[in-house]
Fold:
Amino acid sequence: GTTFNDGAGVVVVKRRDLAEADGDQIYAIIKGYAVNNDGDQKASFTAPSINGQVNVYDAALGHAGIDPQSVGFIETHGTATPLGDPIEVQALRRSYGKSGRTEKTCALGSVKSNIGHTIHAAGIASLIKATLSVQSNAIPPTLFFETPNPKLGLEQTPFFINNTTIPWPGPSPRRAAVSSLGVGGTNAHVLIEQYLPNANASPAPVAVAAENDKVYSILLSAKSEKSLERQIENYCQFFQKAGGSLRLRDAAYTTAVGRKHFAFRAAAHGESCQDILAQLKDKKRLVRGRGHGAPSSKIGFLFSGQGAQRVNMGRWLYDNEADFQQLFDRGCEIVLAKEGVDIRQAVFAGNEMSRDGLDVNQTKIAQPAMFLLEYGLARYFIAKGCSPDFFIGHSIGEFAAAALAGVFDFEDAVALVARRGALMQTMPSGQMLAVQASVDAVREFLGDQVDLAAMNAPNLVVLSGSTQHIQSVSQQLETRAVASTILRTSHAFHSRMMEPMVQEFEDAVANVPRGHLNIPIYSTKTGKRLSREEAHSPAYWSLQLRSPVLFSEAVTAVASEHADHSIAYVEIGPGSTLTTLVARHQQKETMVIAALPGGGVNNQAQLEISECLVKLWVEGYPIQWQRIFSSGRRSEEHTSELQSR
Structure:
């Protein structure tokens, strides 16, 4: 008979795609369900109805769209009464055993033999039991069962009752059903299925394999400085107490995704709990800031120009991030097919790849290599939750901006950049001179032989021309005590010496489609926001290689358009050339960060990327941390204690 009890149960039901995107622990999938009421078919208010139960089973199976024979376990209502149980088994036989099969492939059970009838919580208790059974590949026993009631007629069904724990009897994926048949004639039936992480999944185009991550951040925030200090102490004690039993990934997830973030902020990041603990103890090592709120924040990606390239740039990403490697290799194959050179032999020289006489500083190598690194690094940052509001590209860097913004697709952009670099390399040699002066101060040197190649910052310009004339200008500036530096370039870029290739490159651009400009670009050709017409114009992209790079004017235009916003510039490239240039503008409410100040040549790259994201977060710039945890499962150990802190 029935033993009544009190109980409560809680489950979280969430849409599958959202749960996967948030990295939730998924125990099972609800495939289908149905609810009905027996109505006037019942003999009395408390008496069950066979037809009502059959109808709810059939409706749930139809909703789930599965074969009844694929269900290996049914958690029944199972009250152990002489009237109720035979009716329930008979109804189940009509739905699940209608084929007449009698081989024992489906176990029947009832949690009521374990904990009694928990009244309103009986259905949720059964759902939890069945879910854990599906997840763990084991069906727990129906306690105290010895022999079945003969009125059940189990010998004529595919059902059996187990009194010991058994492995799943049915096929894969594991499927179970749960029945809850209420007094008053309301019947509910649910079909659940084993969760298979990648079954029928369509991964996001920029998804990152989070399980590859070794560096994680612990994010702390509070409503006051005093509260933040107290929280730092609490976390320090927690990490000391946890010792080696804590998974850093789990703690990072809790602080990043499971917390509301307040204005006073601090963060630690590292490869181990010991790294985090050391920073929490030595508070000076924490990254600190005051969040100002997402609505007033803008993030801009800066794409470095030629000259920033170096051997093995991006090597860590190439070796450790499958998406980056696949993208980089695909681009290299395009360059090889179009221009006959494998740029990997130059970029990754000194390791397993031979150089074969190729040099990363050759224009035909440097330009496509810089594009591929910047495009892949930008996608990596976006996948990490750092979404840009605008782009600025310095010379060749503007092509990475255009491809990411949607003007060119990836394949066309790679081919164009490779053609641009190859054509430039065929132009007459020349030199470029960086001068610590304003345009007005060097205007007398501009003429038939020397051009203004760039305005990089206040009182910092670049001149370009033949070797003879640039050397002459350098000597004259030296006599006037004006600082200048001959740049390490083989050609006079952004000068009249590039004019012979302008038309040929314009024709190349004209032969590829141009798409929508989805993210604002501040042009370093015009110094203003790029218009849709300019983005689609082949002439714009051909003259862009001849005209001076107005980087300083583009930065000024950003500040003018976003005067009411805090702006963070993130240099997407190897080194910190552009962040240094932006810093010289001394704009208020501005921060500058290099994504890969070390060029990404070794494992230090992951710490640099992590530090970049942390610095943005502590200052209130929006980082979508849940993207970092979009793949992989987290252990539940320590979760409750972390959530109490």
